[in-house]
């Protein structure tokens, strides 16, 4: 079937890995949204994720239209809440926050939006979302009112990821938090690879190719990059990161 999930899996197979640009359609990115999208178009990203923990004004929908008009790659929603659901995307990560035990983000937002998603006939990609300590207090932790899992307790993280797999999730998203000081530990990836048989996507604090090389060596294939795109004059670094993700260097 030609859906976005299969496209992710095929990209991973054909290119060795896939990179996801994350754009937060919030007021804070308004001034340089067009510049960010141009950089994304010219830096060999495979997919564009749209979403944020919190949208603080009423221009969300307009920004999605702008993103859609400029982006050349598939758009995947990465919603911070049911409120962000839109049919202007090609698919959505259907995220359940497995860490932290807050029923609102485990199942509550899903019930709120299920009928809407059904009417929109939107592709949902069931994703187990696991917040791992990235060394700073993250927006996800603040908004979801949950604690991250300790980043050195591999067994605990694996138990959450396996629970997601057994519940039928098609992806595990390991989140260190946007702009985190520490990204996901390559040793954690090697460990999880021996247990899971669903793909792992990694995000939070990914800034340079050296860091990505170590993660690729440990078996990581799917990467989310957000803050590094918001950083001015950073295109060279993004191109280098994507070369490593795609096995070109
Ligand atoms: C946040 O994982 C993403 O949800 C991306 O993190 O902004 O640190 O790249 P960065």
Could you give a short description of this structure?
With 249 residues, the protein is of the alpha/beta class. 41% of the residues lie in helices and 16% in strands.
Describe the structure.
With 249 residues, the protein is an alpha/beta fold. It has one domain: FMN-linked oxidoreductases (TIM Barrel, Alpha-Beta Barrel), CATH 3.20.20.390. It has 10 helices and 8 strands. It has helices at 4-15, 33-41, 60-70, 103-120, 139-144, 154-166, 186-193, 209-217, 227-230, 235-245, and strands at 18-23, 47-50, 75-77, 91-97, 124-131, 171-175, 200-203, 222-225. An 8-stranded parallel barrel has the order 1-2-3-4-5-6-7-8, surrounded by 4 helices. Helix 7 (186-193) links the parallel strand 6 (171-175) and strand 7. The longest helix has 18 residues, at 103-120. It is globular. It starts with a helix and ends with a helix. The model has no long low-confidence stretch (mean pLDDT 96). SN-glycerol-1-phosphate binds at residues 22, 175, 178-180, 203-206, 224-228.
How far do the termini sit from each other?
A: 32 Å
The CATH architecture name reads Alpha-Beta Barrel
So what's the oligomer here? single chain
Number of strands: 8
Secondary structure: helix percent: 40-55%
Throw out a few tags for this protein.
249 residues; alpha/beta; TIM Barrel; 8-stranded parallel barrel; 10 helices; 8 strands; binds SN-glycerol-1-phosphate
């Amino acid at each position: 079937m030609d859906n976005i999930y299969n496209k992710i899996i095929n990209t991973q197979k054909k290119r060795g890995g896939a990179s996801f640009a994350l754009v937060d359609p919030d007021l804070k990115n308004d001034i340089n949204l067009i510049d960010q999208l141009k950089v994304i178009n010219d830096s060999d990203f495979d997919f564009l994720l749209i979403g944020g923990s919190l949208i603080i004004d009423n221009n969300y929908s307009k920004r999605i239209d702008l993103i859609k008009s400029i982006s050349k790659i598939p758009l995947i929603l990465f919603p911070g809440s049911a409120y962000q659901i839109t049919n202007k995307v090609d698919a959505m990560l259907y995220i359940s926050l497995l860490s932290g035990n807050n029923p609102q983000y485990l199942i509550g937002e899903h019930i709120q939006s299920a009928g809407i998603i059904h009417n929109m006939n939107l592709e949902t990609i069931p994703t187990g979302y696991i917040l791992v300590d990235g060394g700073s207090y993250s927006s996800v932790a603040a908004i979801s009112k949950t604690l991250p899992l300790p980043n050195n307790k591999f067994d605990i993280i694996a138990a959450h990821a396996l629970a997601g797999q057994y519940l039928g999730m098609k992806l595990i998203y390991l989140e260190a938090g946007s702009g985190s000081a520490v990204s996901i530990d390559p040793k954690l990836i090697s460990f999880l690879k021996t247990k899971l048989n669903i793909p792992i996507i990694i995000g939070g604090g990914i800034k340079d190719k050296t860091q990505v090389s170590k993660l690729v060596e440990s078996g990581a294939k799917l990467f989310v990059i957000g803050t590094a795109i918001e950083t001015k004059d950073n295109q060279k670094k993004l191109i280098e990161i994507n070369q490593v993700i795609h096995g070109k260097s």
